[in-house]
């Protein structure tokens, strides 16, 4: 079983590299039972999207 | 020389703000950022014959700017006073502090309500900017390279002369820090234990 710390590390690394089958399985199991890490997973996406949008969005004011 | 008509000076000027923000994210120094943007615009005018009108002007300019920023950063990392300061950064222990001894979240992430709606709010972007600037320089550098300059981890490792594992640790730390800052100052979750 993964701890939340390990799960959050893997969720972050999933942004940089492909997960192995085992890692993907372990994450899925963890996310099934852990709302906090599920939220963190969504927040990583939001931050990624925000970075994408930051330069564009602010440009509309120019 | 009569090719200059393919590069409209007004169009160049319009990209100035965008380029400046791009540079600021990486350099955090308004003067340095302005300098590098000016250099980029000059280089663009000088090499305007290389600009294919059908490609996006911004993409082309960002390509030039990226190189100039990387050159600057390479020079800067060689200056000791630049790197030494925040190596003892408060984030150093953040990933440890975010989790208890049992590996559980100390402040478990809560749901962020309507995050994409926040993107419509100018105040959100000010907070976002604040939070990115609050990251220690060395952490931010890797994060900006990844999320804004869209470099691969391999390229970042090479630039910063760190191992892949170290790079993952830094990026994880950066995300925890940004998450905590946005949570505290924007999404308004104190983090209740579950």
Considering residues with a beta carbon less than 8 A from a beta carbon on another chain, report the largest interface and each chain's count: A-B, 33 and 39 residues
Summarize the main sheet of chain A: none
Q: Low-confidence runs of chain A (pLDDT<50, min 5 residues)?
A: none
Approximate shape of chain A:
elongated
Spatial shape of chain B: globular
Gyration radius of chain B (Cα, Å) is: 20 Å
Q: Helical element count of chain A? A: 3
Give the rounded overall mean pLDDT of chain B: 84
- CATH third-level topology of the largest domain in chain B: Arc Repressor Mutant, subunit A
Q: What count of helical segments of chain B does DSSP give?
A: 11
Structural class of chain B: mainly alpha
What order do the SSEs of chain B take from the amino end to the carboxyl end, as H and E? Answer: HHHHHHHHHHH
Order of H and E elements of chain A: HHH
Q: Structural class of the helix and strand makeup of chain A?
A: mainly alpha
> From the coordinates shown, what is the CATH architecture of the largest domain in chain B?
Orthogonal Bundle
Tell me the number of strands of chain A. 0
Mean pLDDT of chain A comes to 91
State the helicity of chain A in percent bands.
over 70%
Layout of helices and strands:
The complex is a heterodimer of chains A (62) and B (194).
Chain A: H1 4-13, H2 21-33, H3 35-59
Chain B: H1 9-14, H2 16-27, H3 30-46, H4 57-78, H5 80-84, H6 94-97, H7 115-118, H8 122-134, H9 137-147, H10 153-160, H11 164-187
Helix pairs in contact in B: 2-3, 2-4, 3-4, 8-11, 9-11, 10-11
């Amino acid at each position: 079983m993964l701890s939340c710390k390990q799960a959050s590390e893997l969720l972050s690394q999933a942004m940089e590299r492909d997960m192995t089958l085992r890692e993907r399985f372990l994450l899925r199991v963890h996310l099934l039972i852990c709302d906090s890490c599920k939220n963190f997973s969504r927040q990583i996406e939001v931050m990624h999207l925000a970075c994408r949008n930051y330069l564009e969005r602010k440009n509309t004011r120019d | 020389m009569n090719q200059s008509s393919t590069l409209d000076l007004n169009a160049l000027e319009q990209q100035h703000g965008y380029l400046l923000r791009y540079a600021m994210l990486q350099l955090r120094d308004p003067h340095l950022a302005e300098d590098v943007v000016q250099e980029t615009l000059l280089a663009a005018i000088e090499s305007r014959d290389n600009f294919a009108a059908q490609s996006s002007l911004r993409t082309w300019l960002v390509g030039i700017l990226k190189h100039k920023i990387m050159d600057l950063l390479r020079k800067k990392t060689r200056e000791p006073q630049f790197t030494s300061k925040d190596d003892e950064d408060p984030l150093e222990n953040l990933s440890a502090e975010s989790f208890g001894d049992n590996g559980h979240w100390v402040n478990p992430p809560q749901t962020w309500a309507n995050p994409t709606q926040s993107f419509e709010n100018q105040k959100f972007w000010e907070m976002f900017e604040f939070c990115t600037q609050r990251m220690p320089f060395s952490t931010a550098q890797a994060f900006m390279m990844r999320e804004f300059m869209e470099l691969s981890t391999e390229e970042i490792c090479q630039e910063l002369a760190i191992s892949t594992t170290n790079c993952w640790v830094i990026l994880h730390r950066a995300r925890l820090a940004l998450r905590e800052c946005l949570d505290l100052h924007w999404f308004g979750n104190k983090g209740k234990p579950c």
